[in-house]
Amino acid sequence: MKLHVTFYGGLKQDVGAKTQTLDLDGDSLTVQELGDWLAARYPALGERLPTVAFVVGDEIVDPGYRLRDGDRAALLPPVSGG
Amino acid sequence: MGRWILDTPLELAPLLAETEDPACGALVVFFGTVRNENEGQPVDGMTYEAQVSMAEKVLGAIESETLDRFNVRRCRIQHRVGTLKLGEPSVIIVVRAAHRATAYDASRYAIDAIKQRAPIWKEEHYVTGESRYLDGVPLTRKDS
Fold first, then answer.
1. Which of A49, B60, B115, B125 is the right S-S partner for B45, CB 3.0 to 4.6 Å?
2. What is the ipTM, given to two decimal places?
3. Residue A78: which of B49, B50, B138 has the nearest Cβ?
């Protein structure tokens, strides 16, 4: 399955790109499993995951939310606007 | 961009015109601007990034809440994205109310809510040529 993932703020630096298309085994995975997959490849990102919000379609989703082939997800670190 | 998030310099005059209201005796304007130092390090600019579609919804919701929670008649918020120089405004909040006390309270509420909930990030640029994303507030599900 393919997932299109966007990384905001300092997370871009952790993974080296603002967007990535991930090619993953299977036809779905949970947000928790996506986090684990990313943490295994990008340890710096993994350290920050406890404070990162996962977003699908402009909504923050729970770790159990199931992502499917072609979905777009975004990872949002703690915010600092104003 | 949109009604709340702009990638061009923020301007006060259009927001004042949009919020004009003869029933208001108080007008409070808050500008957030790029400061020349942070934690002792000289700063020479700031880059703001947003998840624009979410930020538009959140800032719109904060305007509505500000109107609902305080006895104010008008509230407009605009936030800038892109790279800003020292002194440039990153956010403008315009609040109009019948009386000053509620206008001040409402303005304070709006900027605090933006800092807590808007999906916006800032990267500080230092005079040394280095840059750093600032620590912030984790988003939770009620923020979206």
1. B125
2. 0.94
3. B138
